[in-house]
Specification:
D-Maltodextrin-Binding Protein, domain 2; globular; signal
């Protein structure tokens, strides 16, 4: 019964994590990507049963949170781990809770929720993706947050992280989100974009890599504001999107092995930011993004990082404080304890 309660609660929280699995094409959702296919084993990176028994079982979402992993997945060292791609966070949750997965690249607030619902059985190992939200405009009116006063913004994610981020940035810039701007919520990014295409709206808040796709579809559309930069100005820390969460028992079973995995992950992220063409090809190969060409254009704006220790903790604590103030349920009802932060 306890496991059923955990799964039920965390599945509800998974509805708040739409941002990190942003759509990879104009036909995909800005929430969890609309691909609902069965989980996909990463080609050539899935270990044999004998190796898998010793190596980590790692899950990734199709979208920015996993782009930094692909170079490790494709490496010789990657053969020591089992990587599986999923279309939505709620597919990963029960497997992680039951111990059928060891680690997962997931939205940050879901990691906090899992910490609460598993009574501290998981910890966050690193931040892997910073902010991927952007304000786009078909026009030249918006040059700063102040210019959003009196404007209508179409976006997705009502009651979830995108709404909390937008409202916080507006409020900290002296704008009342309820009276100074009009925020219209759509079910997915394609709906928001269609309003801009039709001329019904000129301003939208969208995630990467959907933004890159949208810029190629709407003549005159431009990035007006980078919400990661705007968050940093008012919060004094980075806006976090995705993290790698790991079960503590998996780390304790082989701490040196996990440290080696982290070293490989750090090298993979470095390659993702330096070898855009090669990383983009791997993103397509492993089904993380539909087309390599789109991935290559989007990678520089996806803010892929490998942030650990005190820096990771500072950014996450500030981020969780904002989410908790907006809606305690978005981080599992309480703020994570210090034991949530691996190596910090």
């Amino acid at each position: 019964m306890k496991l059923k309660r955990i799964l039920s609660a965390v599945a509800a929280a998974a509805l708040c994590v739409s941002l990190a699995a942003c759509g990879s094409s104009a036909s995909s959702s800005s929430a969890a990507t609309s691909e609902a296919a069965a989980p996909t084993a990463a080609p050539e990176a899935t270990a044999s049963p004998e190796t898998a028994a010793q190596g980590l079982r790692v899950a990734g979402l199709k979208g920015p949170t996993t782009m930094g992993l692909v170079n490790l997945m494709d490496s010789e060292a990657g053969a020591d781990y089992t990587f599986t791609m999923y279309g939505a966070a709620d597919e990963i949750v029960p497997l992680l809770v039951k111990g059928e997965l060891d680690a997962a690249a997931i939205p940050a607030n879901l990691a906090a929720t899992l910490y609460q619902k598993t009574e501290g059985a998981v910890e966050v190992a690193c931040v892997n993706t910073l902010g991927v939200l952007y304000i786009v405009e078909n026009g030249e009116t918006v040059q700063s947050v102040a210019d959003l006063q009196g404007q209508t913004i179409v976006t997705t994610g009502k009651g979830t992280t995108p709404e909390y981020v937008l409202r916080y940035v507006l409020s900290e810039n002296g704008l009342d989100p309820d009276t100074d701007v009009t925020i219209e919520y759509c079910s997915e990014a394609t709906e928001a974009l269609s309003q801009v295409q039709a001329g019904a709206a000129t301003i939208a808040m969208l995630p990467q890599p959907f933004v890159t796709s949208a810029l190629s579809q709407v003549e005159g559309l431009r990035v007006a504001l980078d919400m990661n930069e705007e968050w940093q100005k008012v919060a004094g820390s980075q806006l976090v999107t995705g993290v790698l969460v790991v079960r503590k028992d998996a780390v304790e079973a082989d701490p040196e092995g996990f440290a080696a995995f982290m070293d490989g992950y750090a090298a993979s992220v470095e390659a993702a930011n330096s070898d855009l063409e090669g990383t983009a090809a791997l993103c397509e190969s492993y089904g993380i993004v539909a087309k390599a060409a789109l991935a290559q254009k989007a990678l520089p704006q996806c803010n892929i990082v490998f942030e650990t220790g005190a820096e990771m903790k500072t950014d996450l604590v500030n981020y969780f404080d904002v989410l908790f103030a907006a809606d305690p349920a978005s981080v599992g009802g309480a703020l994570p304890g210090d034991d949530f932060y691996y190596g910090a």
